[in-house]
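Exercise 4. Each item below gives a protein and its sequence. For each, produce the structure-token representation.

Item: Ig-like domain-containing protein (Poecilia mexicana).
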Amino acid sequence: YNLLHRLLIWLTTMKSSFHVSAALRVTMRDSSLEAVRGDSVLLPCSFFTSSDFSRLNVIWTLAPFSSPVSPVQVIVYDHGQVIKNPSLIGRVDFTGLPFSADIMLNETRVSDGGIYRCMVNNPPDTADPGVGELLLSVLEPPSLPVCEWDGAIDVGGSVRLSCSVEEGVPIPEIRWEKVNPEEISLPVNMEGELSGSVQIANVSSQTSGLYRCSATNVLGTENCYVNLVIYNSEGLCVLLTLVMVLVLLALLVIILWLHRTGQDGRSRRRRRDRKAEEEECYNEIRYTPSLMKRSFV
Ligand SMILES: *[C@@H]1O[C@H](CO)[C@@H](O)[C@H](O)[C@H]1NC(C)=O
Ligand SMILES: *[C@@H]1O[C@H](CO)[C@@H](O)[C@H](O)[C@H]1NC(C)=O
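Answer:
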């Protein structure tokens, strides 16, 4: 800042000593700003001019971090009129016209982050320089991560715990820990920036417990949990056998019951079928003459 100040003094002395024609000069009071998503932020842009403001023209553009090569117009002041980018109406406005080109951005979003450029013209002043730049970062806390597990949860098997988070600026750091019955920090394999997993091979009953994944950045931490229960294969076999016996018994009961109701139903249906056949015959006899009659008319 000190250097900039000295440069400005130097420029001013240069101008006065060489009698350069009046020049408009833009200065940014900050070169980078941080806002938390949802907050308002003031983007400062001051200028010094020696002409009146009748032909003042201000243009703010944004080169978003998501597409830095295609800047968009944010807000324009021209011929006393303010024109806003339709996607920003209600969120952006000048705060000090015509004496400053500061703008206020409300309800900031992560997508508002990028390089803002403030361009000021005030003919007949020449711009020197008429442009200022500032970098805006919109931070957001991590969203709730999603914990998942897959693999074999019986003794000797291999289990993979995975955790992914969708939002967060700066990008949240992902950590896995076992928190119960003892606290152990686990090595994380990152899969991309937003998800990390832990591989546990040859699991035993000691592997059972509560595992926590945490996603952390400067704005906070969010956690999700997995409760792993490792089954002893023998115990599992006994359990499975028990379950299968129960299922078989249930099936047997159902089959017996179906058999009984099936017999009942069939005899009832047979009776109904016979009755329907009788009716059909009767209908034929009854309707055929009328049809014939009608076709002769
Ligand atoms: C932004 O918020 C400030 C203070 O809450 C308010 O005075 C201003 O009118 C708002 N600007 C816009 C464009 O809504
Ligand atoms: C798996 O663990 C058991 C006991 O914890 C050990 O005896 C066995 O050697 C291990 N097997 C492998 C393949 O590491």
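Check: Residues 202, 204 surround 2-acetamido-2-deoxy-beta-D-glucopyranose (ligand 2) (CB under 6 Å).
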